[in-house]
Structures are given as structure tokens and as C-alpha cells.
Amino acid sequence: MIANLAATLLTKLTVSNRLDGEDVQAISRLPIRLRHLQAQEMIIADGAQSEDCCLIAEGFAFRAKSTIDGSRQVLSLHIPGEVPDLQSLHLHIMDHDLMALTPCTVGFIAHDALKALNTARPSVAAAFWRESLIDAAIFREWIVNVGRRSATARMAHLFVEMHQRLKAVGRTHEGEFAFPITQADLADCLGLSTVHVNRVLQTLRRDGVLAVNRADYHILDMDKMSDIGGFDPTYLHQDPSL
Amino acid sequence: MIANLAATLLTKLTVSNRLDGEDVQAISRLPIRLRHLQAQEMIIADGAQSEDCCLIAEGFAFRAKSTIDGSRQVLSLHIPGEVPDLQSLHLHIMDHDLMALTPCTVGFIAHDALKALNTARPSVAAAFWRESLIDAAIFREWIVNVGRRSATARMAHLFVEMHQRLKAVGRTHEGEFAFPITQADLADCLGLSTVHVNRVLQTLRRDGVLAVNRADYHILDMDKMSDIGGFDPTYLHQDPSL
DNA sequence: CGGACTGTTGATTCGAATCAAAACCGGTGG
DNA sequence: CCACCGGTTTTGATTCGAATCAACAGTCCG
Fold it and tell me: How many CB pairs under 8 A join A and B?
């Protein structure tokens, strides 16, 4: 079990980082507390302080922030192998919510254990730091997305990003991937209304670039979809040598 | 000179981090190469690889990304004491532009020197990591800003944020601060058109919450401005103990 | 079967973009 | 000292993308 969890983490870490055998060993030895979560279950709430980090083993999670007038903005989507609250290692108060998007299996790793690992293995610390910087790079792209792209481009960009990230951990099959998100949550990712999300989805389907069947997304024409979204993968920093 | 640059960096670092005497010494000994920049001068371009980080000593800088259709989104604004391209330490290719907003004095610090410092003094490494996480926290808030807030709220939020950050390094006087930005650049920060920025500015002035005289911004009613922007300072993580 | 989400459709409104032009400002040079 | 210039700010008229409001259909599940 725990071995499986660590393996998921390692799969993700090695997308963007080089780790040697000792690093892998040390990570595999991390004590991880398993937990199962329901869809929409809160993992850590805005304002809370936590003593551990959450590793997603199976399912999707998201981070979000609510404004006073009740509207919500999703800040990031997280896939298996990611640690969406890695920042809590150094920022001790949450400035947003972390929630399960779908039913999830997650592992909790104590801050103390992670800190000890970082001290013992600087290369692992560097990898985690780099992961948190990639996180920030994705935030930057999302600022561009909601700030300057049309509704259609935004949505296309998000789909290509999710495909690219899932592909890197082997969770796609020729443009197809599981993406279990409601249109309402999509709207909160993109800064749009659900009604408009629904309409934009229809045009993407009508134009033959996307097929959706429940949670099964299929990007039928990746080049066209990338074009529509103005997608450039540089910001994902998936090449460990760069 | 170099001592002055390091002092500016230390002022900023100690807003959010605890550093001991040895840390301060080590930072003060960093070799820094001085440079003067004109307004709108490129510091590092999207796609470039750099060997050093840029410390702002005087003036303002910004990071921005351009979409294919030519529009631009500003991702962050940077004030004296900040290192806007700290991420280049671990992400070796730029995924956005870094430019001077105003005439700037900046110091360049070699990656090698910073990496040596991080190895020698883990507490400094932790401080820099934390700084980069605060950077990410600000990105998150900006996603909310452009994604879910009205034009007026966005602008108010940005003004309060800038005031709060400048205040922390002693660059405000009772709601007044120098903020030398054109309405066009403001528009690119907020995902708005310049025309609309101009109109929103007028309403803020008319409502008596803001006075602007060239680059001199004066928030006349901080509570009201914070209210309009829905501002909550938690995300700035200015308390080193949290 | 009924109820609660989720997705879909249509009609209407509204905030902000766009287009276009004028006013303003600081600097430069004749 | 004033005419001129480029950049910035301001104003008005119009258009447009997306939100809102409201209702209805589909699907899952107890």
C-alpha cells in the first residue's frame, strides 16, 4: 500500500526531476498515513494550519478560493502523484481550500518526516522545491488564461494542459483521458458561468475537436485544440534537464 | 553599494522570515553585479536561460506573458528587495518575460553563488523557498482577481496589495505610496482594457477612496478600499511565525 | 417513484471591449 | 520661448461576449 503510494509520488517526481537510487529509497521509506475521501470532501480549509502534506494516490483534487460575495475560483487541479499542499511545509496557514474533486485515495505525510528527508537528501529537497516552482508556473499560466483568453481558448487550454500532465504520468490513451469534473466546477476553473461553459463545450464538440462521454474526455484533434487554446507546454517544465 | 543592495534584500527577506546573524553575514557577502535599467527594458525574455538572479534595488519590475494574438497579461509586480526570477534557480528556461516597469537599479547574483549559499546555510535556503511560495500565493490571489472579481474590485485589491507590500518594507506614508505605472500597464495587470481602467479609476476618485497625482497614489480610505477589493492579507504571509 | 444533482436551452441584460477622436503632458529642438 | 512630437489620459458612441434569469430534460440512486 504505502509502497504503492510512494511509487505514485515517484512517478510524478521523475517527470520533472532526476533522482538517484538513494533518493528513491529514502522517498520509499516515508511514513504515509492512508485515507479515503468522498467527492467534494474538504482536505484542508482556508485559514487552517496543518502538520502534514497530502499526496494524491488516486482521484483528482483541487484548490479553490471563495470571494465574499460567494463566488468561487478554482486555483489548480491535481492529479495522482502530486502533493497539492506542499507549500504548507513553509507557509503555516492555508490561504485557500484544498478539496477532493472526485472520490480520492490520499496519503498524509508528516511535515517532520518531509523536513528530515529534505535535510538528509538535498537533491530531494531540490526536487520538491522545483515541484513547487512548477506549481507556480502553472498558476502564472492560469492568470493568463482567465485574464486574457476568450472563453473557448481558456477551455481548450485547460483540456490540453490536463492531457499533457496526465500523459506524463501515463494516464492517457491517444488523446483520451478520464476527467471527472462537472460543468459547474469547470466554470469555477475558468472564471465563467456554468451556462457559458455548457455552450462552449457544445461548440468544441460541434467543431469536432472534442468528444465527451461522462468523465471520458477525448481530444479528437490535438493540434487544433492546442491552437484554439494558444497552448505552449514550456511552462509545465517537464524536461528535468531544463 | 553592494552592501546597500544586500541590505535591501535583507529588509524584504526579514518581512516574512527569521534570519540569524550568521545568515545575515552570509547574505551580505554575496557577490552582486550592479546594473541600471531603463523603463520597459527587458531583463530576461520568455524562452531564455539565465545564469543569475536579479535583485531589485530601486524601482519596479514586472513579469508578463504574451498571447499569440498580441495581448499581454502582467503576472506580478515587483518592488525593491525582491528577486523576481528566483525560480530560475531550479527552472532553467523562462516561461515569461521579466521587465523593468520604471527605471531600475538591479543587482545580478550568480546562480552558483546562491546555490553555494543555500548549501552552506539551510535556513537561508528555507527563506528563499518560502519567498518563492509566497510568490505563488500572490499568483493564486491574482487568479481570483482576474477570474472572479469585478473591474472595480480588482483594481481596489491590487492597490491595497501594493500598499501592504510596500508598507512592509517602509515605502509608504499613511496610505500614500509611489506607484509609477501607466493605465495601459494597469490594464495588463487586471485583464482589462485601458479605457475601462481609466473609467474605474475615475469612479474610485469620485467616491473619495483614492487620489492619484502622477505616480503618487493615496488611498484615502483604507477600510473602504479593502472592502471594495475584498482584501484579506493572509495570502501575503508576512508573519514569519506562521 | 421521487428527489437531487447535472446538463441543456432560450430570452434578456449588463459589464467591459472596441473604435475613434480629442485633450493633456513632458520633453526636444529650432 | 514656442511649436512640435510621442506617449498617456480622457471622452463618447457602439458592439459584443458572457452573465443572469428561468425553465426544462436527463441521469443516477436510495
Answer: 132
User: Residue B136: pLDDT above 70?
Assistant: yes
Q: Which residues are bridge partners to B2 per DSSP?
A: none
Write down the pTM of the prediction: 0.97
User: Best residue in A49, A97, A117, A140 to probe B by mutation, most B CBs within 10 Å?
Assistant: A140
SS (H, E, C) chain A: CHHHHHHHHHHHHHHHCCCCHHHHHHHHCCCCEEEEECCCCEEECCCCCCCEEEEEEECCEEEEEECCCCCEEEEEEECCCCCCCHHHHCCCCCCCEEEECCCEEEEEEEHHHHHHHHHHCHHHHHHHHHHHHHHHHHHHHHHHHHHHCCHHHHHHHHHHHHHHHHHHCCCCECCEEECCCCHHHHHHHHCCCHHHHHHHHHHHHHCCCEEEECCEEEECCHHHHHHHHCCCHHHHCCCCCC
Chain mean position to CA B4: 19
For residue A2, pLDDT beyond 80: no
Written as nine digits, the cell of A122 is: 538535498
Question: Residue A24 in contact with residue A7, Cβ under 8 Å?
Answer: no
Task: For residue B84, give the amino acid letter.
Answer: P
Q: What are phi and psi of B80, to 5 degrees?
A: -55, 140
Q: Which long-range CB contacts under 8 A does B210-213 form with residues at least 24 apart?
A: B210/B159
Residues A5, A40: Cα–Cα separation, whole Å:
21
Tens of pLDDT along A24-82?
A: 999 999 999 999 999 999 999 999 999 999 999 999 999 999 999 999 999 999 999 99
Contact between B101 and B62 (Cβ < 8 Å): yes
> What gap in Å lies between CA B212 and CA B135, rounded to an integer?
27
Report the percentage of chain A scoring pLDDT > 70: 99
Q: Which CATH architecture has domain B150-236?
A: Orthogonal Bundle (1.10)
Q: How far is CA B94 from CA A133, A237, B89, B98, B157, in A?
A: 12, 10, 11, 9, 28
Determine whether the distance from the CB of A183 to the nearest atom of strand C is below 7 Å: yes
**Strand D closer than 7 Å to the CB of A214?**
yes
pLDDT confidence tier of residue A129, bands split at 50, 70 and 90: very high
Domain B2-140 sits in CATH at 2.60.120.10
Domain spans of chain B, in order of start:
2-140, 150-236
pLDDT-derived band at A3, boundaries 50, 70, 90: low
Is the pLDDT at B1 greater than 70? The verdict is no
Q: Which residue of B has its CA nearest to A70?
A: B148
**Which of B49, B96, B234 has the CB atom closest to A140's CB atom?**
B96
Gyration radius from chain B CA atoms? 18
